Amino acid sequence: MQKWQQLFFNNAHKYKPGTIKDLQMKRHLLVLVILFISSSVATYAQQRDTEQSSPYVTTVGAIDNSTPIVLYPNPAVSELNITFPAAASVKTIAIYNMIGKAMVVYKVTGTSANLDLESIPSGNYYARFINTEGAVIATRKFTRQ
Q: HSE (CB half, 13 Å, CA atoms) of 120?
C-alpha cells in the first residue's frame, strides 16, 4: 500500500458528514482517486510496453535502402521484376498493403524474381524481403496499377 493510501484509510473515520472537515476530506479523496487512476494507467502502460509483441504484422517497418534491391517497372501493371544480390540470401518476398496486411507471399531462389501481381488490387504496397533465417533484410515500396 502506498503512503497516500495509508493516510487516507487511517484518517477516514475522523470526519463527520456535512462538516468543513468532511468536505475537505472529500476533496482529498477526489485527489487521491485521481492519483490512484493515473498510477494505475502508468502501471498498465509500462506492463503493456514490456510484454511480448504480437506475432501478427501490424506495421511495415522502416524502409532499408542499404541492400541493393531493384524493383521494376514501378508502377507495375501485372508483373513486378526484382533483382537482389546473392549475398542477401533472399528466400521469401512478402507483399503488404499500406495497413500492414500480408497480401501474398512468394518463395524465391537465385538473385531475381518475377512476381505475378494479378491477385492483388491496384494500390500502394511494400515488398518485404526475408532471408533464410526469417529476418527481414529490406523493404521496398511499389505501386500496382
A: 28
Helix (H, G, I), strand (E, B) or coil at 57: coil
The number of helices, as runs of H, and strands, as runs of E, in the chain is: 2, 7
Cα angle vertex 114, ends 121, 90, to 5°?
Answer: 105
The answer to whether position 58 is within a domain reads: no
Q: Are residues 79 and 139 in the same domain?
A: yes
Domain that holds residue 108: 70-144
All three cell numbers of 46: 509500462
Q: Can you read off the three cell numbers belonging to residue 101?
A: 496486411
Place of cell 487516507: 8
The pLDDT tens digits for 28-83 are 777 767 766 766 666 665 665 555 555 555 555 555 567 788 999 989 999 999 99
Tens digits of residue pLDDT in 77-97 = 999 999 998 888 899 999 999
Q: Cβ contacts of residue 95 below 8 Å, gap of 6+?
A: 102, 103, 104, 105, 106, 115, 117, 120, 125, 126, 127, 128
